[in-house]
Specification:
- By secondary structure, this protein is mostly helical.
- 59% of the residues lie in helices and 0% in strands.
- The longest helix has 16 residues.
Length: 171
């Protein structure tokens, strides 16, 4: 059985104040997460059921009030983000710069050499999909080759069309 939460009278006062000043349902629930077990002696499981939240959320709300009483101010941590990132976004940009320069000069970006370079940079093996996600994050997309070659000669094509034999046409 889990040990009961240590709810002090100072926490009770802060919870009552928070309930009276509550502007959102979250703030109201946070205050009630302390008051209900303090007044009624309920477990966190029952409090969670009454408030419509999970046990972990009740404990988290009680911790918020405990930290307010202790004077601990924490910045709100964001829930999203890239928690398992291998490089920061800026490091990824620096890694891709030579590849971007090569592709701008008419080269084609091929993933296997990029994958090998990424593994060397990180010093570990990574799945090929990591490279594709990296490219997508930086605005790359799968581009099919153009319909014409960048070094084509339009005049030579036109003269070929005019002077070539028409043997390939049906009669």
């Amino acid at each position: 059985m889990a040990r009961p939460a240590q709810l002090t009278t100072a926490m009770e006062r802060v919870a009552q104040q928070q309930i009276q000043e509550a502007k959102t349902a979250r703030e109201l629930r946070t205050g009630l997460s302390v008051l209900i077990p303090k007044k009624c002696g309920c477990s966190n499981a029952l409090v969670g059921e009454l408030l419509g939240v999970g046990i972990a959320t009740v404990v988290r709300m009680q911790r918020e009030i405990r930290e307010q009483v202790a004077g601990i101010t924490k910045q709100k941590e964001s829930w999203g983000g890239r928690r398992r990132q291998l490089m920061t976004f800026v490091e990824e940009q620096a890694f891709l710069e030579p590849w971007i320069a090569a592709s701008e000069s008419g080269g084609v970006l091929i993933v296997p050499p990029l994958h090998k370079a990424l593994e060397q940079r990180l010093g570990r093996t990574v799945h090929p999909s990591t490279v594709y996600r990296l490219l997508a994050r930086h605005g790359w997309r799968k581009v099919e080759p153009d319909t014409c070659h960048p070094k084509r000669d339009v005049e030579a094509q036109d003269t070929f069309k005019k002077t070539s034999h028409k043997q390939w046409q049906k009669r």
